[in-house]
User: Fold this.
Amino acid sequence: MGRRRKQNISIFRNETEYSYDGINYHELKRDRDRGTFCALFIKNDELYTHSFTLPISTKEENFLPAVEMAFYENGKLDPKRSYKIDYKRALSEKGDLWVIDAFAADIEQIEENYLPIYKKVGYIDLLAISYLAYEGYIKSNSDLRKGNVLVIHIGREDSFVSLFKNGDFIGYNKIYSLEFISRKVSIDIERVTKILKEKGLEESLYSESEKEIYSAIVLVFTDIVRQIERLIRNKKIYFDLDGIDRMILDFDGRELPGFWKLIDDYGLKSGTKESISHKIDDTLPCTSSFDCIKDLYLLEVYRGVIEAPNLSPYRREAPFWDTWVGKLAISSLLSLAIVFALGFYISQKTQQMNRYNSLLKKRLSSLEKSEKELIDSIKKEKDIRQREKKRISEIEEDLERFEKAIKRLGGIKHKSAQRQKMFKDVDEVMQKYNIMCKELEQNASLSIDVDLVVPYERRETIAQFMKDIKAKGYKSVDTDLILLEGNLYHSRVKITR
Assistant:
């Protein structure tokens, strides 16, 4: 039997570590609770993000190298620095593309910000992405696992909208935070938060002297609705999103008066609209609705309900019995036990089958003798026919070669100059970036396939190579293979005139 996993995780609030099992919290003592799963969220301002698609044919072992290459081609990462990169993927409605939301964090910055926790605990099992946090809330509620669900989070430092289809995360978009709204309307954040909770976007709740504040707030939230609409429009390219079945607002567990009317006025219709409610309990570590939702997400990841991107450089090695080798060892021991238990039975059956096989061999021997004579006769006839067919085939091949040679004579001089030009351009750019070539194959005079090889730390030069070749006037420069072998990046680039 496998070891029973603990059902609680470790979370941090204001440098205090707590144990959480989905219902209760208690302050965690490392001398008592050694080995508890340690998880926390990376700050959004420490993230680099990129959204794109990959072909459905992308092999699993090439997925992460392809994501890294997309990040570097986009120019968002500094090739001189090291990053922790991971991704969340969803299969498009047609099943022909992977829709990717990728995340990266500078390893030096992670070590600077999370080293104190690492020193205290000795590991960080999960460094999660808060844009994905509502997936735990969605998957734990059967009503929300159906149809298209949009969750709008409005927070002090970060605000965003997340989109789910049949319980699975398919995309997100950043929207204005309370800090940004405060700067935009020129009101301090505490006061603007209080105004939004009490009056929101309801014009009738504002006095005559507050009409200017009301107009400024409505203008900002109109932009927020546009940001929400942009996410839906972008994801419609890959998913069936003709209607949003449910919209959920998380504004620190409070209502936002007038917000749903603004959504309707803008034309974003949905079947159901609701707000997450949360009663503040100062005795609990999760004093906000979003804290509680994030804790639930971390627990669901630990339980295996959710597959989550992980940017932690401090993950533990899995216990031996949880590794593939450990599981194989257990399976082998069980198999041996079964073999020994059935040994005697198999031995008896084997002896019986051997006796039966001896009788069959005697019968077959006489049949094989007569069959061999017949086969020899047929083989002689087939050899004669085969020699005649080969002679005819050779004559036809000679005629075909003569015809092709005549056709080629007219174009050899022109194609030779084109080939030399393509070889010269490729060699010039390879020398410029000090790139190795594993193989170079010319397809007529229209295209060249080049297998490029560079060290992992200089992988960005492949993208630079492609850009320089494209600038020389070629019709297309594409890559259809990205492979990481040890410390070497392999990329096959097709260049077409």
About this structure: The longest strand covers residues 97-106. Confidence is low (pLDDT under 50) at residues 1-5, 409-413. Residues 324-409 form the longest helix (86 residues). The two ends are 63 Å apart (CA to CA).
